[in-house]
Amino acid sequence: MQDELFPESWQRPVQQLSPGITLLPGLALEEEKQIWQDVQAVLQQAALRQMQTPGGRTMSVSMSNCGALGWVSGHGGYRYSPTDPDSGLAWPAMPPRLAMLASQWAAAAGFNGFDSNACLINCYVPGCRMSLHQDRDERDFSQPIVTLSLGLPARFMLGGIQRNDACQIIPLIHGDVLVFGGPARLCFHGIMPLTAGAHPLLGSRRISLTFRRA
Q1: pLDDT reported for residue 3
Q2: pLDDT tens per residue across span 49-90
Q3: Looking at the DSSP assignment, which residues form a beta bridge with residue 67?
Q4: What's the distance, Cα to Cα, between the start and end of the chain in Å?
């Protein structure tokens, strides 16, 4: 069962899914433990929490941030903030290793010079999902989005520029990096409900790190 959930990364080549969208399978595996240690250190300073949508609904996914800016949601809308609304303090600094890796991963997908100043940390447990949406709260759409998947496998929904465009389903497993930018920067995307399981490092959850230039 473990082999079915987590196939060997070297059996899956780099995939150019469409112009501007690249899947880099298993690219983070060599540093998975150090990355997870960095994430845990951030979460000790800014705990995961379920934010509210502008309409007052509670999101199923738990979130936190690190970097100069953090993505937040609430009655005031979706936005970036330099401070954690729960504590009033600045978000934890982005660990240098994570910032360096995000830049390297972006370059591997053809986006050189990516300098992330915001990392959104999402935590999914079985049953959690993320509905189709665009990442459009950033100021500079010339910069890509870089997402690292850790823990349980996910089914990533990738649509087009219009909400009703057809979606393709992309399996993402522990250590995979997905980069999208250029003509795909504003593609709708989301995560299907997470299936139950257990990962040897993270247990019964999936953590995604989404690096952005806010």
Answers
A1: 47
A2: 999 988 889 999 999 999 999 999 988 889 999 999 999 999
A3: 118
A4: 39
Supply the pTM of this predicted model: 0.93
Question: What is the 3 state secondary structure string of the chain?
Answer: CHHHHCCCHHHCCCEEEECCEEEECCCCHHHHHHHHHHHHHHHHHCCCECCECCCCCECCCEEEEEECCEEECCCCCCEEECECCCCCCECCCCCHHHHHHHHHHHHHCCCCCCCCCEEEEEEECCCCCEEEECCCCCCCCCCCEEEEEEECCEEEEECCCCCCCCCEEEEECCCCEEEECHHHCCCCEEECCCCCCCECCCECCEEEEEEECC
CA distance 167 to 52: 26
Q: Which tokens go with 98?
A: 């994570």
Domains of the chain: 2-212 (2.60.120.590)
Looking up tokens 């996914």 gives 61
Characterize 138-166 residue by residue with b for buried, 16 or more Cβ atoms within 10 angstroms of its Cβ, and e for exposed: beeeebbbbbbbbbbbbebbbbeeeeeee
Over 80: is that where the pLDDT of 4 sits? no
Query: In the structure, what pLDDT confidence band is assigned to residue 121 with cuts at 50, 70 and 90?
Result: very high
Q: Are 52 and 59 in contact (CB under 8 A)?
A: yes
